[in-house]
Automatic annotation (TrEMBL):
Protein name per UniProt: PucR family transcriptional regulator ligand-binding domain-containing protein
InterPro entries: CdaR-like_regulators (IPR051448), PucR_C-HTH_dom (IPR025736), PucR_C-HTH_sf (IPR042070), PucR_dom (IPR012914)
Species assigned in the record: Pseudalkalibacillus berkeleyi
Span of domain Purine catabolism PurC-like: 11-129
Residue ranges occupied by any PucR C-terminal helix-turn-helix domain in the UniProt entry: 459-516
PANTHER family: CARBOHYDRATE DIACID REGULATOR, DNA-BINDING TRANSCRIPTIONAL ACTIVATOR ADER
Gene3D superfamilies the UniProt entry points to: PucR C-terminal helix-turn-helix domain
Length: 539
């Protein structure tokens, strides 16, 4: 239902008392709104008008003085009057061309009464219409507000609200949003949309009005009304204000629901990685928050992104990473925990090549231009133990955390480390809190350590390389970049310090290898208290 909330000059020309009239200027201004009717017979009227008045005059002010008429007309234009009606005959016989040109230039209607009329009858008639319209406006606004509030309780998006606004105003409604998904009611053709229709009029045009939609001091968009047949009136502006407020309430509700769901989802993920869910609970929650899917297993990856990465860049990066792993057959769930970014990677393919596919995805991620710029600041990536049971995702998170700590102490040059590839370090980490373990390191390696400290030697490095090369002297010399004689001399020293059977005795050799890993694990990094504190935070 469209509301007739204002009178235009054109509407008034259709009233009974305007049958014998002639519009001689300002035809383009016939859509001007009329808020009141005044009879004016004085030369200076600037302080008497508020705007949008239709002026009735016999011309007694200027009579045949064209300069006075021109000055009188300019005052009306400056005050924003709606139009000038002049009774021809008694005091004025004609209107000069200069006055008509001035009126046309300003789209200001000049209407001539071609016979004598009673101004009192005109004012009574039009004022009665305006007063009735005012009361009708109040009723229609109350009705509109009621319907708006009803829709606010039931609708899921702003489309129905904009349609209701169009029903009451009959105007073109445009909702310009920050995400560039503009809404048009009624729909406009593609060419008009591309031409940016809300820029067709200047900001002070009486045919366009707009209001910003602000939610919690954040700009969500702008609501426009456009008119092609009449000027925007007060009722339109009141409707615009009420709709803008309702839209802000709708967006606030959506933000609240989104934030609540985000909080619930974060709580679910937190409890999941803490191992609080059984298999069935994990499946039910996964279907609720992520949708139904067939999952064959999964793992957890942990990394620390640079602090200076902005929120928008972080969001973009996570979307990009999600896309890469989806191509490799993984569904990605992202969360933040203890200052680290946690990626839960769920395997959606039944083949046994999960690690190959995951490694391929990791390589693509690490080779992106975005990460190449920040690679020196990325604090490693660690992948936890793979599990086929969703209830054991917590175990995968724990092993990823352990892998991240071991990776730092190991000081590997690789950015990505898999927990299952750490082998001996995992065994050593089980003993690192036992006092006897350090004593065993001393028992097996202390002579070598003391020799290196005393003579600035490299026996410990030689021992580690020699064992890793399975006793191949040629390969050991090659890796150490030393000649054979230098290597033979070092091996002789090792035999004196560790015993001649340190290679031939399988159990002794295994124990020495274990102690080498333990020594590197417990004493290899210079991370100090900062690393200890970070380890406590991750655990």
């Amino acid at each position: 239902m469209q509301h007739q909330s204002s009178l235009s000059v054109k509407d008034i020309l259709n009233r009974d008392h305007f049958e014998k009239t002639k519009v001689i200027a300002g035809l383009e201004g016939l859509t001007r709104q009329v808020k009141w009717v005044h009879v004016v017979e004085v030369p200076n009227i600037k302080k008497l008008l508020n705007g949008n008045e239709l002026i009735l005059s016999t011309g007694v002010v200027w009579k045949e003085n064209h300069k006075l008429l021109e000055d009188f007309l300019q005052q009306l234009i400056d005050c924003g009057a709606a139009g000038l009606c002049i009774e021809i005959g008694t005091y004025t016989s004609n209107i000069p061309d200069s006055v008509i040109q001035l009126a046309n230039h300003n789209r200001f209607p000049i209407i001539l009464f071609m016979q004598e009329v009673q101004f009192v009858n005109i004012t009574q008639d039009i004022h009665a219409v305006l007063i009735n319209q005012h009361y009708q406006t109040i009723q229609d606004l109350e009705q509109y507000s009621l319907k708006l509030n009803q829709k606010l309780l039931t609708i899921e998006n702003s489309n129905e609200m904009l349609k209701l606004m169009h029903d009451y105003t009959g105007l073109q409604i445009i909702m310009k949003t920050n995400d560039e998904k503009d809404l048009f009611v009624p729909e406009m053709n593609s060419d008009t949309k591309r031409s940016d229709p809300y820029k067709l009029f200047p900001n002070d045009s009486p045919f366009v009005a707009k209001r910003p939609v602000i939610v919690m001091e954040k700009h969500f968009g702008e609501l426009f009304i456009l008119s092609t047949e009449r000027e925007i009136n007060e009722f339109d502006l009141l409707i615009l204000d009420r709709t803008t407020t309702a839209l802000a309430q709708l967006f606030l509700r959506e933000l609240y629901v989104e934030e609540k769901r985000r909080t619930e989802k974060h709580e679910w993920i937190t409890r999941w990685v803490d191992g609080e869910y059984g298999e069935q609970e994990a499946l039910v929650n996964l279907a609720y928050y992520e949708g139904k899917m067939r999952v064959y297993g999964g793992t957890v990856a942990i990394c620390k992104l640079p602090l200076e990465i902005s929120s928008s860049d972080r969001t973009y990066l996570n979307l990009f990473i999600r896309s890469i792993f989806e191509q490799q057959g993984f569904h990605l769930i992202t969360t933040e925990r203890h200052g680290y970014t946690v990626y839960i990677l769920l395997n959606l393919r039944g083949d046994g090549a999960w690690k190959h596919r995951l490694s391929t995805g990791m390589e693509k991620v690490l080779n992106t231009e975005f990460l190449k710029k920040h690679a020196s600041q990325i604090d490693r990536i660690a992948v936890g133990q793979y599990t086929e049971a969703l209830s054991k995702i917590g175990l995968s998170y724990q092993t990823a955390s352990e892998a991240l700590k071991l990776q730092k102490k190991k000081q590997s040059e690789r950015l990505c480390t898999y927990y299952e590839d750490l082998h001996m370090y995992r065994v050593i980490s089980l003993f690192k809190t036992q006092n006897e373990f350090q004593e065993m390191i001393t028992e097996y390696l202390q002579p070598v350590i003391d020799y290196d400290e005393k003579y600035n030697g490299k026996l410990l490095q030689t021992l580690r390389t020699y064992l890793s090369c399975n006793g191949s002297k040629k390969e050991t010399a090659k890796q150490l970049y030393v000649v054979r004689q230098t290597l033979y001399y070092r091996i002789e020293k090792l035999e004196k310090l560790l015993g001649e059977d340190f290679m031939s005795n399988a159990e002794k050799r295994l124990a020495i290898e274990l102690m080498l890993f333990a020594h590197e694990h417990l004493n290899g990094g210079n991370h100090g208290q900062a690393l200890k504190a970070e380890d406590e935070m991750m655990s």
